Automatic annotation (TrEMBL):
Pfam families: ABATE (PF07336), zf-CGNR (PF11706). It comes from Amycolatopsis coloradensis. Residues 141-181 form the Zinc finger CGNR domain. Gene3D superfamilies: Jann2411-like domain (1.10.3300.10). This is Zinc finger CGNR domain-containing protein. PANTHER family: BLL6575 PROTEIN. InterPro entries: ABATE, ABATE_dom_sf, Znf_CGNR.
Length: 190
């Protein structure tokens, strides 16, 4: 099903996992939801399964994604939030008709409206973004230290000193780059 498409980066925060479906925004950008059915796959993995997705709905999803990215970046930099991004996030949040339901096991599940409910799923993501950007949730918005990434991520570590959006990709790459640079320096400094 996912053959030929870039893998998803899975995080624990819905809103920033969603913005992570476009990575390396300042380098060679990787679009991880290039076609509607990949958005369906992503939503399924994140507990927001929908029946189907149209090209127009994918466009709307990407508009929301970039709006969350813009607003989260501004918030991380303590800049004023871009008005157009706030508008898109709010519009998606208001449009969604998803309901939180409690399972017998005591966990939360999202029940989306009937039919193809990409808009309902986007409503859940928009609400999650509002939680994170408004400071309602415990954690701190920060920007990835990788120059080609600079993704906004939500730092929930105790010390609030996380530097990378993802340790397995950006963090490792940075470490390798530093290691290589150190190896190169050695002969001349010896
Ligand atoms: Zn990163």
């Amino acid at each position: 099903m996912s053959a030929g498409f870039p893998d998803f980066r899975l995080g624990t925060v819905l809103a920033t996992s969603f913005t992570g479906t476009l990575s390396e925004r300042h380098g060679n950008a990787v679009e991880r939801i290039p076609v509607p059915h990949r958005l369906v796959d992503w939503l399924t993995v994140n507990g927001l399964a929908v029946d189907s997705c149209t090209t127009a709905q994918l466009d709307l999803a990407r508009e929301l994604r970039e709006s969350i990215h813009a607003a989260a970046t501004a918030a991380a930099n303590q800049d004023a939030l871009p008005a157009s991004a706030v508008e898109v996030i709010n519009e998606c949040s208001v449009q969604g008709r998803a309901a939180a339901v409690l399972t017998p096991e005591g966990t939360r599940r999202w029940r989306l409206g009937s039919g193809s409910c990409v808009e309902d799923a986007l409503g859940v993501i928009a609400a999650d973004a509002i939680d994170v950007i408004s400071g309602e949730r415990d954690g701190k918005l920060a920007l990835c230290a990788s120059p080609t990434c600079q993704a906004a991520f939500f730092d929930t570590s105790q010390s609030r000193t996380r530097r990378w959006c993802d340790m397995n990709t950006c963090g490792n790459r940075q470490k390798k780059a530093r290691f290589t640079a150190n190896q190169r320096k050695k002969p001349s400094s010896a």
